[in-house]
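Figure 2 data, in text form.
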Amino acid sequence: MAGVQKFKKILLIDQNGGYVTVSPTMPVNTKDTAYKVQISPVNEDKAGSVEGSFERSMEALMSSVAQELSKALKVDQLRVEVMTRLTGIERRIDTESLRGVEVEKCRKEIREIRDQFFESQKKYFDYNRTSPIADEAKLNLKRDVPNYPKYQLSQETIDYLKQPTFNIWHWEPNEMLSLLEHMYYELGLVQEWNINPITLKRWLLCVQENYRNNPFHNFRHCFCVSQMMYGVINLCKLTESIPLCDLGILLTSAVCHDLDHPGYNNAYQVNARTELAIRYNDISPLENHHCAVAFRILSNPECNIFRNVSETIFRDIRAGMIQLILATDMARHNEILEAFKSRVDNFDFHNDEHLTSLKMILIKCCDISNEVRPMEISEPWLDCLLEEYFNQSDREKLEGLPVAPFMDRDKVTKPSAQIGFLKFVLIPMFSALSKTFPQIEPIMVKPLIDAREHYERMQEDMENGRKKAENAAAT
């Protein structure tokens, strides 16, 4: 306040003589209820105390800065230590003719050292576990009384949940669990599979526990894909053309499709020779792992939503889920899309091969459907995806592994990341689906075209800004 000396106490007093707390919710100061401003001196001891407090704060700050500098200076020391250990292990492999088992142990130790070095170099906190294998405690989750409440959904929410434009950012984890639970009831799957309501809650909780806190591949992504699947089922009236059990397989596969995703894609798994790549022989290691985790959860009777179906039906459900989750590997995109396009002109819902091809396209569309939603919903997902990509490329550079250009923070931009993906992947696939379900054209295909045009304009603006900056620098 102008004219007030240092170390003065400023108080606001209302007309009743009470002190007014300064906050966003404080009563409005009007002519009729004007505050009184009272300025009183602080005694010298207290002033000295304030000055002493300031000095102590500065000392603490300087101490913190010194600690951070000390940590930074230890990086070179750590690098020397790591290289010494690596050289020693490699020398053992070269000179001691180690047996196969011992060689694998050495390779595992090298990977662990690299992990330690990567963790020490990162400038942010990584919530992922180093191991790519799901936590046993989470897989065997048991809760006598599920701890998320049953929300009373309004009719407006129930109707909105069926729309592809549904805003998934407005919902907390417990609310997402309740919305997923509602989908199973509303579609009639609880009755179809005779699911115990408590078992359904436990299964959903266990699924949530086994999604990691990645920037993109997390439980909200699981809910996003599942909600889009539920929206497509309603929009395309699939209950009229596809058996209910198959719809249940579609929804359950969407819920489970990225379980325990480590935040690093298949290319990284294979190039880094991770445990998952070795286990699944470099063939869709992540998708195979998602399937395995899904059925390990279901192997617990308290989380098995299929425990009351016949053995024959369970075999069909298992085979269908494995087929659909494996179809989400983008390495198989062209194969799956071309197979569907060859059948779309004469599509037959009573033909098992045609139906399987459609289900694979449906889960693929839902898995990468963010751009179908309004831009204010979809663009934050792109930020999350790029964060996960950059995390991977940083690690690949540190480990000397190949880096995909679309993941390199030094090369990729939002427009460059999306224009090609929209033009060559999303629009062709959704357009093919619209031949079987024309009702998705204005609701799903058109938003994709609008998104492509949005990013093309963004790219043009960025290019113009770059040229202006270059011209200004030249002059």
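Caption note: The chain is about 65% helix and 5% strand.
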